[in-house]
Amino acid sequence: MPLLLELMITFFLVAGAIVALIGSIGLARLKDVYMRLHGPTKASTLGVGCILLASLLYFSFLKGGLSVQEALVTLFLFVTAPVSAHMMAKAALHRKLKCSPRTRKGPPDQ
After folding, report:
1. CA distance 58 to 63
2. CA torsion, points 76, 82, 87, 90, in degrees to nearest 10?
3. Are the C-beta atoms of 61 and 28 separated by less than 8 Å?
4. Which value, in Å, is the radius of gyration of the alpha carbons in the chain?
5. Which of 63, 78, 83, 100 fits as disulfide partner to 31, beta carbons 3.0 to 4.6 Å?
């Protein structure tokens, strides 16, 4: 395997792990549901996306062609993560969940 490809795969794996760790810490530490939506959404799209890109590069090199499984999983992830975050935010607004005073613009009727 070429050194440049190994460095790229390593970079994407480390970057993905760091972003996923930061998203997990954000999920645990942020105060209300509206702020907590950002942690896992960003972690899944950026962190897991980087890890899937590293996997795509690795298996594409091994097989000698594009690895379709990783490409499809990445596409599915980038399509569904924003939609699921939007639906969770709509459900929180519908249930009129309270927000932290640190949230800039809270839900209506608070």
Report:
1. 9
2. -170
3. no
4. 18
5. 100
Instruction: Report the predicted TM-score, pTM, of the whole model to 2 decimal places.
Output: 0.79
The structure tokens listed for 48 are: 């897991």
**Angle of helix 49-63 relative to helix 3-29, nearest 10 degrees?**
160
The whole-angstrom separation of Cα 39 and Cα 70 is 23
* Sequence letter at residue 26: G
Smallest Cα–Cα separation from 70: which of 85, 83, 52?
52
pLDDT per position as a tens digit, 6-57:
999 999 999 999 999 998 888 888 888 888 888 778 787 889 889 999 999 9
Q: Give 65-102 as a DSSP string.
A: S--HHHHHHHHHHHHHHHHHHHHHHHHHHHTT----TT
Q: Which amino acid is at 79?
A: V
Residue 96's Cα: distance from chain center in Å? 26
